[in-house]
Amino acid sequence: MIQRPIFAPILAGATLPDRLFACLGAAVGIAVTALAAWGFFTLVPDLALASLPLVVAPMGASAVLVFAVPASPLAQPWPVIGGNVISAVVGVTVAHWVPNMPLAAGLAVGLAILAMSLSRSLHPPGGAAALTAVIGGPAVFAAGYEFPFLPIGLNALVLVAAGLIYHRFSGHSYPHRPVPAAGHVIPASSLIPHPEDIDKALEDLGESFDVSREDLDLLFAQVERHAAARRGSVRA
Asked: Structure pTM?
């Protein structure tokens, strides 16, 4: 029986040290984000922002992506910053033009997905940012179009900066680059799928996967490398 790593059913490629390191990274990242917001609000007091939280809830979800799955296309700097800010702008706009709360909530999230998709900044916590702009209460409504930038934009910028610094020590690339780890060699083989074949296969499946085409290409190359090594050991 094949013994799988404890986190294999949850996240392919995950290891326990990676998850522990992600826990520490998220803790540090959110704490630094809150501290930066506190410092900014202290230096630049504003009545419209006084009652807003230092850190908005969507940043907790963003931290999971940045620190636990930094290779995800959804966790890259532009989706984290652009996705949250753009979605919040959508949410504020909907909140000001649609007085019906249930309808506004649905429209905000739906239109945020559309806006993120068109701007190539799809980021799941963006949906929460749009929803927060609608259901956040009087303080968020009063802040208006300041809300997407303070605190959301500031939070996202600091969180990304924390991720950039933290992953210099984690062993993972961030922003992610599809390159093999040190000491691993990609074999030259005709059995490795052509990138266009990968695109066509993904189109055939009709699903969106949280992995880039370049990472799939690298993965197939590494699979061929290990398969070749296994075939050689079997023949020996």
From this structure: 0.79
